[in-house]
Amino acid sequence: MLSEARLPHPECDKLGFHMAFKDDTKTEVDQYARNHLNDEGWHISYFGFISDAGLARRLGEEFISARYIYKILEGLEAKDWLQRAQIRNQVISYASIYEAALHHILFVNLASDPKVVALTEFKTRKPISIPASKLAVLKAQLEHDGKNIIPTFDAVGKTEETKVRFDKKAECAHELGIIEDWLKDELIEFYEARNAIHIHAEIRKSLNYELDLSKRAYYRMQPFREQIVKWQEAKATQISAI
Question: How many CB atoms lie within 10 A of CB 154?
């Protein structure tokens, strides 16, 4: 038999049944997290390689929020289910940052590059517009296994940028010299883990693997930035030499 315990009603907070931490507790927790982090301005400037100031700010905010939450849970010495939540938040946050940054560089800064354009193109076949009288003649002459034969021509279809898979974006960034091969592989691993985060997958994987993955997702932020900045500087030098 299930107990009669019920989920607390959202109105309980308004009625005062559940109170927030006392001010001194909130201050202590906040200071603990901030004392182990660079300030918000540092995190925003970390994405100075992003040409869109609004996106750079958002990525910086996502970065510091991921670090802040991690530090709070670290201070609580999160274990078991809470540690899994800590890991899940890290993987989702960093994978999303990597994806947004690469997407911007490819589809904004390099939108006309043939390799980038190819990401949204695919081979397809389109029907040929033929007058009904001539189509009737073709149907009378062409037959295959009792199926209708529709005349088509080879064409190139276009898909939306948002529907391009992350692994394809990462591979393209590597081909363009933006990121190194080893980093490309790890970014793909992080993003695949982000998309595969659900209870059944977590049960199959060991906590040690997930913990290692979340730490690597954070530590790869530095080479990610360094490699992009190096590529941008090399590109700027090439342009100035023309």
Answer: 8
User: Do 65 and 93 touch, CB atoms closer than 8 A?
Assistant: yes
DSSP states along 72-100: HHHHTT--HHHHHHHHHHHHHHHHHHHHH
DSSP one-letter code for 64: H
CA distances to 60, 181, 203, 224, 235 from 177, rounded to whole Å, are 24, 9, 37, 12, 10
Eight-class DSSP state of 44: H
- Could you tell me the pTM of the whole model? 0.81
Helix (H) or strand (E) holding 115, with range, is helix 114-117
Residue carrying structure tokens 């507790």: 25
Give the pLDDT confidence score for residue 1 in this predicted structure: 47
57 burial type by CB count under 10 A (0-12 exposed, 13-18 middle, 19+ buried): middle
Helices 53-75 and 80-104 sit at what angle, rounded to 10 degrees? 170
**Per-residue pLDDT tens over the stretch 187-214:** 999 998 888 766 555 556 666 778 888 9
Collapsing DSSP to helix, strand or coil, 121 comes out as: strand
Find, among 103, 111, 98, 105, the residue nearest to 163 by Cα.
Answer: 103
Distance from first CA to last CA of the chain, Å, rounded?
78
